[in-house]
Amino acid sequence: MGQFADDTNKIHALLADILKPTPFQRSQYLSDIHQADIWLKREDLTPVRSYKVRGAYAFIRETLETDPDRSLFVCSSAGNHAQGFAFACRHFGKRGVVFMPLTTPQQKIQKTRSFGAPLVEIKLLGDGFDDANKAAMDYCAAESGLMVPPFDHPTIIRGQATVGKEILEQSPDGYDWDRLILPVGGGGLAAGITRYFSEVGKAPEYSFVEPDGAPSLFESLQKGERVRIARVDNFVDGAAVAQVGLETFKHLSGFSPDQVVLAPTDGVCATMIDMLNIEGIVLEPAGALSIDALNRLPSDQVRGKKIVCVISGGNFDFERLPEVKERALKFSGLKKYYVIQLPQRPGALKDFLSLLGPEDDIARFEYLKKSARNFGSVLLGIETKRPENFQSLHESFDRSDVRWEDITSNEAIANFVI
């Protein structure tokens, strides 16, 4: 066993003060639909509903062992690291300040405040993690605080690696895993688990999952050096990082870009809705990445294999549920939006309604323009039970005197009018 694994084992023993091993469960549902043996490591069931408490606790504890008088800790976070940080600060009785983007879901802000009260202060600023991170570093320099990084530090990586130790300890006797599917934001979890497995002599295949709107690891592996993403989509907020960490990339740079799965945001939403409806599991977008990857991997990498999906978090703000459902329906091909032009004559609307199939339901109907003399423009949203129903609907449109345009995939128009 290497030094990294030995240090991780020591951290895991100390973690027992605040954290029991999270559940490791076989998913009959996922195993059945993918014809595989699929297990879920439920980091969404820690006290702070993510794995981030492991690294924050390890960092603060290690600091206090050498500097017991340290009084101020600081962090920047899109939410999950903040909660783990706040939990650890209160455990050790130390003052903390958290910098979070203005876009952070209210649920994560409120939980951070709850875990850290009365010792932790929250400051909201910037549109994303990088803005909050810069402000946190400036504050540290001005106030002599110590920055607790979310992922880019050896101790943080060892703390997150304790997830890997638990996977091995909780695995059924005689199990050798064919594949581990690991979500990636800054890379601390993936770096820790892969390093730990390597040092204890385990060598499964790995799939690393990033949101397609923040492919920092993928582009870095392609180029052979760390790449900063110019524009990050923050919807998958727990993994929306513009640049993978320096320390984490040292651990991950030997992997191939072919091992990275880029998960489409709308597909992640479909996975979230599926797991909520079928399994009763509440996932945040980043927490759904590893499960969503099962739908993206080649079938020969999944079918018949023993696979671990690490669920990284379950801090979901249910105010976002309507948007998640909307994205999921569109991705699944069960909802489309149209701009249609109906002739301005008596009975035109009745004739149009007759074009709809028995499984088609009007979810939105809104006049966009009332000044046309011959035609009236309408924004129309339609939900149906099966994707193939839309082909029949389009054929009915074409046979009628309706002028129509499908705007579902036209992001510029859809974002403006929907």
Give structural notes.
With 418 residues, this protein is of the alpha/beta class. It is built from 16 helices and 14 strands. It has a six-stranded mixed sheet, with helices on both faces. α7 (154-170) packs across α8. The longest helix has 17 residues, at 154-170. The radius of gyration is 24 Å and the shape is globular.
The global form is globular
Termini separation (Å)? 56 Å
The major pleated sheet works out as: 6 strands, mixed
Task: Find the structural class using helix and strand composition.
Answer: alpha/beta
Number of strands: 14
SS strand fraction? 15-25%
Number of helices: 16
Mean pLDDT: 92
Shape-level CATH architecture of the largest domain: 3-Layer(aba) Sandwich
The top level CATH class name of the largest domain: Alpha Beta
The total domain count is 3
Helix content: 40-55%
Kindly report the CATH topology of the largest domain. Answer: Rossmann fold
Low-confidence stretches: none
Radius of gyration: 24 Å
Helix/strand order: HEHEHEHEHEHEHEHEHHEHHEHEHEEHEH
The order of strands across the largest sheet is 1-2-10-7-8-9
Outline:
The protein has about 425 residues and is α/β, with parallel strands linked by helices. It folds into 3 domains: about 5-50 and about 155-325, Rossmann fold (3-Layer(aba) Sandwich), CATH 3.40.50.1100; about 55-145, Rossmann fold (3-Layer(aba) Sandwich); about 335-415, ACT domain (Alpha-Beta Plaits), CATH 3.30.70.260.
What are the defining features of this structure?
19% strand; 418 residues; globular; Alpha-Beta Plaits; alpha/beta; 14 strands; Rossmann fold; four-stranded parallel β-sheet; six-stranded mixed β-sheet
